[in-house]
């Protein structure tokens, strides 16, 4: 039996559920990939100057990487439990003046259909730009959420979740309000940069006159296959980041990350709440520290992510262990100690970030860091208590700056024939 809580993927030759058995009009990017690959092999063997023969020396064709497809329809929206992708775009929109519930419903209907088509490796529609014409789906996901202000703009204040109340102020915040919040939020991820940009452009064009971009951010992660074996990602500080993430096979995973079927409001059943923070890393200051000092700030070894109390990356951290001088092996203000769920009343969140680099300032300082995205069933029991504790004494706070913030209600996945948010907008 298929577990509906896990994002579903299918191989290139498997039919999309509900798809007609006869030939589709046109050709999908996924099918084009297979056709071009076969042709390229034949022509390459014959010495032709197209197909693989025209690829850079030593290049590997996008076979399994480009063909991987994530299902749009399901219990939960894609892009939450989907494995980290190598490229991401975050974009927030504000509804245009005069646009309300009707226009929002039409927009979400357009966006959902575009997302479904692109995630299946199909063109966006009649006005497809052709940017990703030669690529497969490349694990593309498109995820939609609603900000606090959306409900007032659409006359749906009574349907606004209590969990969507604005986040409290934190002493470490240096927030740019123009790059925070927004009526609507879209997360795009893919394992190919052109596929990801293609989706971003299609979503922007679909907004039409109904909504305007409020802010947009670009991120990246290590590409699949770049390491000899699968491993936890590293951030731009060089630290293994995500070791303590809850796992889908844990018995309380659904409870921590997703709103229950019986939850309130009803339209948020199987949905989640995303906290989004642009966290600039003060890399010049960080890189002046010795590796030992960096490890004491984090509470884990830089080489393999193991706790300073010993073991390997997955070893339980021993918070009471001391060294020969009687000092705690994991310092009292170490980031990994402070963020542990058992040190925060069980508060847990699924972190699924992207790194960012937006150039170098005139003084030579890189504008780089983490597009922090975390998912939880209730941010008041997930992100907020942990951030409050970090705000009071995290050793890492000297080396980061929170520059933008948003909180979004992300409804459950759309069933076949539905669009995302339909239960809210037509309920």
Describe this structure in words.
The chain has 427 residues and is α+β, with helices and mostly antiparallel strands. The protein has two domains: 27-61; 68-427, no CATH class. Helices cover 23% and strands 18% of the residues. The strands form three sheets. Strands 7, 8, 9, 10 and 11 form a five-stranded antiparallel β-sheet that branches. A four-stranded antiparallel β-sheet has the order 4-5-3-6. Strand 9 (354-360) and strand 10 (366-376) form a beta hairpin. Helix 3 (101-119) runs antiparallel to helix 5 (193-207). Residues 1-11 have a biased composition (Polar residues). Pfam families: Dyp_perox_C, Dyp_perox_N.
Number of helices: 11
**Could you tell me the number of beta strands?**
11
As for the number of domains, it is 2
Catalogue the unreliable spans. Answer: 1-6, 11-28, 30-57
Helix % is 10-25%
Summarize the biggest pleated sheet: 5 strands, antiparallel
Overall average residue pLDDT? 88
Structural class: alpha+beta
Provide the β-strand percentage band. Answer: 15-25%
C-alpha-based Rg, rounded: 23 Å
Shape: globular
N-to-C CA distance: 31 Å
Itemize the secondary structure elements and their pairings.
Elements (H helix, E strand, L loop, with lengths): L8 E2 L18 H17 L18 H4 L1 E2 L16 E9 L5 H19 L21 E6 L1 H6 L30 E7 L2 H15 L3 E10 L32 H5 L14 E10 L1 H5 L3 H8 L36 H4 L11 E2 L2 E7 L5 E11 L6 H11 L6 E11 L11 H4 L2
Antiparallel strand pairs: 1-2, 3-5, 3-6, 4-5, 7-10, 7-11, 8-10, 9-10
Keywords for this structure?
5-stranded antiparallel β-sheet; disordered N terminus; 427 residues; single chain; transmembrane; 11 helices; EC 1.11.1.-; 11 strands; globular; 4-stranded antiparallel β-sheet; alpha+beta; 2 domains; signal
